[in-house]
Amino acid sequence: MHKYMRTIGFSQYTSRQDLDKLLKKLVKDASKSDILKESDGEMFCELRAQTAPGMGVAIAGHLSQRGIFKQEYYFPYVESSQVTSTADCSIQRHTERETFAGLLDEYRVGISLIFYMENSMEYRLRLKNSQPVLPKSASLSALSIHGKILLPVQKTPQQTEDRKKAASKRSRLIEAAKRGDEEAIETLTVEDIDLFSSVSRRVAREDIYSIVDTCFMPSGIECDQYSVIGNILSVDRRINRITGEEIFLLGLECNDLLFTAAINAADLLGEPVPGRRFKGQVWIQGNVCFEA
Prior knowledge:
Mean pLDDT: 89
Radius of gyration: 21 Å
Number of strands: 14
Structural class: alpha+beta
């Protein structure tokens, strides 16, 4: 079964037999469906069953001429209403099936940020209907199966403002360096050396989580899995309508990126409160908004 089904409140479904029964029920309860006629004449269908406000399960498969649905794959999804990034985004198809990954050249993170494209059916329909498929922005969401709450790093308003200015300056330098600006490359190299020296001195007498405010780092061998530490901006509670399990929806700020993270209440250590921090390994999804 999908590793992140427990995130949206299905931690009790541990056997394949129980999961198959659940998916059949969700197919009947689907509140949204999209159908794509493929080049070979077959009908590809994606069904979406909402299990709590803003989250649910997407089930995709083929539809026979008799109207019989045959499932091919499924995945849990969490919707995000806020735009995370307007950076350049490219879309690539996965190898094993016709799902897609997005890649953001996001300078604020310092790496190419890869996510599982949650609205791949919309992308396929646009290609089929010869509509524009130029990405305009991406709204990211994160699903976690284990996380903990950290206390915030105490900062003065001036320190917060200085950090924002430094992050903005670094983003401009990285952008210039990618264009081949030798002065920007040299400046970044010197800054990295100074940062390494500063951290090496501080780590001997300070806790690592007082030095690292937020982070967004690849984790494991799967390209859309990340280890994050983010400031909690908002906390919402959702109840899975089928199992009654409680899910936290956390509005996070991480490296100046805003996104929504979901986690089962049973998998979260600590009490989430705005102002504190969330630390956990997450699977990143993204909803790509296209040019009109």
